[in-house]
Amino acid sequence: MALTQKIVNDLSYKIIGAAIEVHKHLGPGLLESIYHKCLAIEFETRNIKFSSELIIPIEYKGHSIDTQLRCDFLVENLIVVEIKSVAEILPIHQAQLINYLNLLKSPKGILINFNVVNIFHHGQKTIVNKYFEVLDND
Question: Which Pfam families does the annotation name (predicted)?
């Protein structure tokens, strides 16, 4: 089966649904590490395959650079999920996600801020890149 934008988008909805479920039970105001652990449990409960705290490889002119750069989640080897618990999402948070997308060659990323009243309306931002654009449009 060809990887399509629809498959990636459907997975995005599942990820956001899992985040909403965590937020519904915990509410805003806790540490990011708590949301991280709970979101991992929710992914497992929903049979969503993921890597947590994935070390992102960086290559520079044929050399592997050990930076210990980590993304919060790589879901189904397709979508990078970065979580925050901050007063507001800043441009640097979006830049971080874009860099992770490009380094991992992932088509889509989701930035989730648990420190909001409503994740669906104010707590998530989705970013796509050139790897998303080349997927089949089915």
Answer: PDDEXK_3
Give the chain's mean pLDDT: 92
**Nearest-angstrom CA–CA distance, 85 and 72:** 13
Q: Using the structure block, give the residue that is written with the tokens 């309306």.
A: 121
| Residues in contact with 91: Cβ distance below 8 Å, sequence separation at least 6, in sequence order | none
Percentage of the chain beyond pLDDT 90 is 77
Contact predicate 80/99, CB 8 Å? no
Given a cut of 70, whether residue 71 has pLDDT beyond it is yes
Side-chain-side CA neighbours of 137 within 13 Å: the count stands at 1
Residue 68, phi-psi category: left (phi > 0), alpha (psi -120 to 50), beta (remainder): left
| Residue-level pLDDT at 138 | 57
Domain ranges of the chain: 5-133
Distance of CA 60 to the CA centre of its chain: 25
- Answer yes or no: are the C-beta atoms of 23 and 119 closer than 8 Å: yes
